Amino acid sequence: MNIVVCIKQVPDAKTVRYDTEKGTLVREGVGAIINPFDFHALEAGLRLKDAYGGEVTVLSMGPPQAGNALKEALSLGADKGILLSDRAFAGADTLATTYTLAKAIKKLGRVDLVLCGKQAIDGDTAQVGPGLAVRLGLPYVTCVNALSVLDDGKTMHLRRVNEDGYDMLELEIPALLTVLASLNTPRLPSLKGKMRARKAEIPLWDARELGAEPGMVGLAGSATQVVSTWVPTFEARREMLEGSAEEQVEALVSRFKEAGIL
Amino acid sequence: MAQVNYFLTEEQQMIVDLARQIAVEKIIPVRAKLDENEEFPWDIMKDMAQADLFGLYIPEEYGGFAKGCFENCLALEQLAYGCIAVTTTFAASALGGYPILLFGSDEQKACYLPDIAAGKRLVAFGLTEANAGSDAAGIQTTATEDGDHWVLNGTKQWITSGGEAEIYTIVAMTNKNKGARGATAYIVEKGDPGFSFGKKERKMGLNASSTRELVFNECRIPKDRMLGKKGQGFIMAMRTLDLARPGIGAIAVGLAQAALDEAVKYARQRIQFGQPIISFQALQHMLADMATKIEASRALVYSVARTIDDGTKDTAKISAMAKLFATDMAMQVTTDAVQILGGYGYMKSYPVEKMMRDAKILQIYEGTNQILRNVIGQSLNKEYAKK
After folding, report:
1. In chain B, positions 36-75, which contact chain A (CB-CB < 8 Å)?
2. Size of the A and B interface in Cβ pairs below 8 Å
3. Is B163 left (phi over 0), alpha (psi -120 to 50) or beta?
4. Hey, how many other C-beta atoms are within 10 angstroms of the C-beta on A151?
5. Which residue stretches of chain B have pLDDT < 50?
6. Do B221 and B245 share a domain, yes or no?
7. Which of A78, A208, B303, B322 is least buried, going by the fewest C-beta atoms within 10 A?
8. By C-alpha distance, which of A45, A80, A81, A76 is closest to A193?
9. Is B30 on the interface with A (CB under 8 A)?
10. Are residues B107 and B131 located together in one domain of the fold?
């Protein structure tokens, strides 16, 4: 089974600090980690590889330092990592990101399964998985938290968590899944894996390598425009009502009327 | 703030990071439960196997990494930062594996080392008996030849990972009249006829580690299970311990570091008399001594381990020094950590009481610190006689 796992390098929530005046993240001195959901996608891919053979390729779009996230994935057992990096990719929303990832996956040739985490902990959109599936013309199931492959090696039984419970679904590969943390417990890196990862070269694919159209990637290819960001102000007032119970109720009702609640 | 630089290679740092990750993610979350339930840490052993740690000291041809005493110490220190009971189980497998590595025949190495390196089978080392502790020459377990077999009779006591390990390297007497020179080492496997396990001991600490008797009752093992030559069992045991003792020093350093971290964290948060207690000089001086002694112990352990890896012969004295100094330090530092946390430190809801209970064994096992002082003293006597 040839598997592609898409991972994203995100700020380490444990070390993140906020600039409360500007309402932005302080990026300096913040550690970078693999998006936690993506670890579970990678683990799912590695387990399928252990059981059915094939290759696990890890894909990430990001600045050159995102190569470290790919190396970490290699230390866990992924076979190869590819970094999609180009100044032109900067500022991409999910529309441009899925375009870029899809270009890379098509370039890889035969892919049986694409795995993504449910969402990234920085953007929280949960759109890249489904968007990528549409661009690749693949069926997809989101929020998977149990997975088994039938004897034919291509039919999967999946449990998709929804707000009321879960759905049991059958899906044939090739397909795309986005996974939840409850799907599995990611493995630790091994010493062999770490040593291999240290020496590994991470190929870097830019826009030209992908044959990507300039207007489709990065900020230029993004439909989302961030006009401004701000921290909502929180104003709370407190007032103690006095008097008998009747007087207090009367006062409360009149306050509600003044505020337009009643 | 600058830290002492031990000039680790990138690969050594990798070993440190990996062992630390196991301590933080796998050991620390469950250590109190393992201690309370006296539960053998099989899940963590599997994690360590998957992370390749069991193969650190084993040659590459047997699936290991051919690393030395120093790399082993680096791993042990970080694992011990999590829990020394779990770490002892891991370290005991190396203690049992060293005699096969150092003195085994090519056939024995090919038979056992790949499984040991992969963490498929744990190893235990059996020397101690009820009447043979520091005085290993008092061993009463016997081995007699019977055709193609050796027949073992006797009981080993307080054997780490007894019952859980599948491979045992043990020492038995082949000639009682010769004393220590009449001892021979053997490999015994779980399931060998006449080999069983006695009761599981209940202990003051180190509860996640299994400590049991090995009982040999007309236990028949094939001839080719003898390790090295007849009569060399005692020397082999001593050389094994010389190689393993810096590792115990490293465990002590990791444990003490964990206790210091808890103590400083607490002292910075705990408010008494309107200020954090770390602002009081009495506590500052305690913490300063703890930190300084930990660093001194680490420096000694690392230096001794590197000296051993350089191929230096006759390391009994310096190995003993590394274990002695670091483990006495760990007992003191963990005791002081409990003192700094005060009443909270004595409670099971904080980790330092377990650290203090666990620390005590470090001064006792793999040679009591009194015996180690004898080793050092006798070495000095020999050294100065030559001058």
Report:
1. 47, 50-53, 55-56, 65
2. 34
3. left
4. 6
5. none
6. no
7. A208
8. A76
9. no
10. no
Domain boundaries, position B158: 124-231
Looking at CA atoms only, how far is residue A76 from chain B in angstroms? 9
**Using an 8 Å Cβ cutoff, are B25 and B47 in contact?**
no
Q: Does residue A19 have a pLDDT over 80?
A: no
Residue among B25, B50, B72 with most chain A CBs within 10 A, to mutate: B50
Q: What gap in Å lies between CA B273 and CA B283, rounded to an integer? A: 14
- Domain-ending residue, one of B200, B231, B262: B231
B240 and B370 housed in the same domain: yes
- Domains identified in chain B, total number: 3
The string of pLDDT tens digits covering residues B227-279 is: 999 999 999 999 999 999 999 999 999 999 999 999 999 999 999 999 999 99
Contact A195 B14 (CB under 8 A): yes
Using alpha carbons, select from A72, A8, A61 the residue that is nearest to residue A206: A61
Whether B352 is covered by a domain: the verdict is yes
A168, pLDDT greater than 90:
yes
Q: Chain B: nearest CA to A71, how far in angstroms?
A: 13
Active site positions of B, annotated: 366
CA dist., res. B89 & res. A176, Å (int):
43
The residue from B53, B88, B120 where one domain ends is B120
For CA atoms B189, B193, B194, B198, give the dihedral sign: positive
Best CA proximity match to B365, nearest among B256, B222, B204, B234: B204
Q: What are the C-alpha distances in Å from A245 to residues A253, A256, A261, B149?
A: 12, 16, 21, 96
ipTM of the assembly? 0.86
Q: What is the pLDDT of residues A105-144, one digit of tens each?
A: 999 999 999 999 999 988 889 999 999 999 999 999 999 9
| Contact between residue B15 and residue A192 where contact means Cβ atoms under 8 Å apart | no
- Are the beta carbons of B51 and A198 separated by less than 8 Å? no
A77-108 pLDDT, tens per residue?
999 999 999 999 998 999 999 999 999 999 99
- The CA distance from B224 to the nearest CA of chain A, in Å, is 33
pTM for the model: 0.88
Would you call A191 and B22 a contact, using CB atoms and an 8 Å cutoff? no
Query: Closest to B22 (Cβ–Cβ): which among A188, A192, A198?
Result: A188
CB-CB contact of B366 with B324 (8 Å)? no
- Across the interface, of A191, A195, A198, the residue whose CB is closest to B53 is A191
Do B150 and B384 contact (CB within 8 A), yes or no? Answer: no
Which residues in chain B are closer than 8 Å to A192, comparing Cβ atoms?
52
Same domain, B82 and B180: no
Strands A32-34 and A113-117: unpaired
All domains in chain A, ordered by first residue? 2-221 (3.40.50.620)
Token pair belonging to A169: 């679904």
Q: Chain A residue closest to B44 (CA)?
A: A188
Confidence of residue A227 (pLDDT cuts 50, 70, 90): confident
Tell me the residue type at B247: G
First to last CA, chain A: 62
Cα R_g (chain B), whole angstroms: 21
Going from the C-alpha of B172 to that of each of B141, B179, B242, the distances in angstroms are: 5, 11, 20
Tell me whether residue B1 is in a domain. no
Say whether both B106 and B147 belong to one domain: no
Q: Decide if A31 touches B, using CB distance below 8 A.
A: no
**B342 and B310 belong to one structural domain:** yes
